[in-house]
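Lab channel / #folding
Pinned by the channel admin:
"Please post every new chain as: sequence first, then the structure tokens as a reply. Keep commentary short and put observations after the output so the thread stays searchable."

First post following the new format, from NK:
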Amino acid sequence: MNSRHKQRETAMTCLYQSFLLNKDIKQAVYDNTETNEIDPFLYTITIDAMKYRDVYVDKISAVLREDWEFSRLGYVEQAILLMACCELDLETAPKAIVIDEAVTLAKKYCDEDSYKFVNGILDRL
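Reply from TO:
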């Protein structure tokens, strides 16, 4: 697998499938890459993101409006935010790059204004 952007896209798909189908994250990664040789970066933003999911959900929930909960968000938004929160936590890239990548994914896969929401949440983390 090549670029980090492509890996983030794959990771988002894996996390989405894990949430939607209640699928084990390792199985989702295997299904989407068809290999057991997982790139370390991809491993981090999928397996580690799920391993520390509760921690990241708490961080994200802390910056959501009071009348919102993480569980109310769409699965794609959840996947993007979880992955980006993991990246910010583990400092895989500068914050601006992580946010830009998350916004790019949100623009491509989410509702029209979701990218603004994703940007706002990540900016406050």
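NK: DSSP finds seven helices and no strands in the chain.
TO: also worth noting, The CA atoms of residues 103 and 120 lie 10 Å apart.
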